[in-house]
């Protein structure tokens, strides 16, 4: 399968089911892997929330849920230090289900506190789409936790779309039928085709931080950001800029009709209780 081998090249590892101990020297990675099982069992993962701001109203209309690991010895560990490993070992599959389950519980708390969010994004790894039961399991979690599917949005990277075209399209199709939205994360850095953008029910493009960080000074990046905003709107999608850190980046995005932003200029990702404080003050 061509798409599969292309995705495999991009990610540089094989999809074979991981067998503990086999062909593997003890390494920090190996240690981390057994740590990850412990973390799942003992509830050491936590979702932080980064506000999403609507540029027409200046109000918080949503958030992105981002995983954090409260490690008993190493303290707070960020995703870049455990997501890639968990994608290699396949542990991202149960971790991803946990994230959906937890976001559902958090959404209920947010709602009960009287806040009405439009969308909360939860990241899905390309690796989760290799699980044949993805849509089915998500469905089950949504039912058991009574998650409001209108609020839930899954953030996919372009690599997820490449990994296995038909299966991915089926899973996305099934989930979108029950009202879940999808956004395309880190847009502009991957390999998605216009054909796929048209074919899949994608509701929003998220402009990668690497472009946002160089506006408005780099003329190439300003043109790329403008092009992505126009592309999204012409295809009837929303557009969200990631990693907004400065006033001048924000001004540029407002002038160019970007819909929403998230970034340190407003807030970094914060624990749920702090996110609720931010909502209360907004
Ligand atoms: P992402 O989904 O593109 O998330 C945005 C990342 O940019 C987050 O990093 C966020 O903290 C960071 N960010 C937001 N605003 C700014 C800013 O203004 N400046 C800078 N320098 N950074 C900003 P984080 O939380 O470390 O997550 C990194 C990546 O890990 C995420 O990128 C996502 O791909 C992955 N990830 C996080 N949580 C999950 C999860 O639950 N499941 C999966 N599959 N992946 C996750
Ligand atoms: Mg994301
Ligand atoms: Mg991103
Ligand atoms: Mg990213």
Describe this structure in words.
This protein has twelve helices and ten strands. The longest helix is centred in the middle third of the chain and has 21 residues, at 92-112. Strand 6, helix 8 (194-199) and strand 7 (204-207) form a beta-alpha-beta unit. The chain is an alpha/beta fold and 282 residues long. The structure holds ligand C2E and magnesium ion (3 copies). Residues 29-282 form the EAL domain. This is Diguanylate cyclase (GGDEF) domain-containing protein.
Can you summarize this structure?
The protein has 282 residues and is α/β, with parallel strands linked by helices. It contains 12 helices and 10 strands.
Index terms:
single chain, 282 residues, alpha/beta, eight-stranded mixed barrel, 12 helices, 10 strands, disordered N terminus, binds ligand C2E, binds magnesium ion
């Amino acid at each position: 399968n061509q798409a599969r081998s292309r995705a495999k090249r991009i990610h540089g590892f094989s999809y074979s089911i991981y067998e503990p101990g086999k062909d593997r020297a003890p390494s920090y990675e190996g240690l981390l892997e057994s740590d990850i099982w412990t973390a799942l069992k003992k509830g050491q993962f936590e979702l932080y929330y980064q506000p999403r701001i609507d540029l027409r109203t200046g109000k918080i209309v949503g958030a992105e849920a981002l995983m954090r690991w409260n490690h008993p010895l190493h303290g707070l560990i960020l995703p870049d230090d455990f997501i890639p490993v968990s994608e290699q070992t396949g542990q991202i599959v149960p971790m991803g289900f946990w994230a959906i389950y937890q976001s559902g519980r958090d959404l209920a708390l947010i709602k009960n506190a009287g806040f009405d969010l439009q969308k909360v994004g939860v990241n899905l790894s390309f690796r989760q789409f290799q699980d044949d039961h993805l849509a089915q399991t998500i469905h089950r979690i949504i039912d058991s936790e009574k998650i409001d599917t209108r609020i839930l949005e899954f953030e996919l990277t372009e690599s997820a779309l490449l990994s296995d075209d038909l299966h991915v399209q089926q899973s996305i199709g099934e989930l979108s039928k029950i009202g879940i939205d999808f956004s395309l994360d880190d847009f502009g850095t991957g390999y998605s085709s216009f054909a796929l953008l048209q074919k899949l029910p994608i509701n929003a493009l998220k402009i990668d931080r690497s472009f946002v960080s160089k506006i408005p000074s780099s003329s190439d990046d300003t043109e790329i950001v403008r092009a992505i905003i126009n592309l999204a709107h012409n295809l009837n999608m929303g557009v969200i800029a990631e990693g907004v850190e400065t006033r001048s980046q924000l001004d540029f995005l407002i002038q160019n009709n970007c819909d929403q932003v998230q970034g340190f200029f407003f807030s970094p990702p914060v624990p749920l209780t702090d996110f609720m404080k931010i909502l209360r003050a907004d």
